[in-house]
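Friendly challenge for the regulars: who can give me the structure tokens for this chain first? No prize, just bragging rights.
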Amino acid sequence: MLKIGEFAGLTGLSVKALRHYDEIGALVPADVDDRSAYRLYGESQVRAGVVIRALRDAEVPLPAVSAAISGGEAAQALETHRVRVLEQREREDPRSSRPDPPHTHLQLKSPKRRRCWTVRMRPVLKTYAIRCCY
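First reply, four minutes later:
Bragging rights claimed.
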């Protein structure tokens, strides 16, 4: 049996997060000492802790993480989250899935000083490059 600090060190989760996951039922300790209220985790729970850490690092919502851990469907939860993020990105900016338009070139020549300027504009990214030549 591993104490909460040891388990936190192995999984990369904080002690505070482990207490929270215990409260919501996402990762319940294998045993809780009646006298000291220490949470003790089994070695078999290390994998679940690491999976929770990976899913939370990928910003998968906690209810989906809890469901994935209880059902053993971590890969499915990650794929569902990826699809949801891509759909949200598409709703926020429908142009994101289309390829960037070609650069717009504008060349101005000054007849007296033989200068030219090239302006490149990318409307989607709103970046401009100006090149002067003499």
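Residues 74-92 form the longest helix (19 residues). Confidence is low (pLDDT under 50) at residues 103-110, 124-134. Your move, everyone else.
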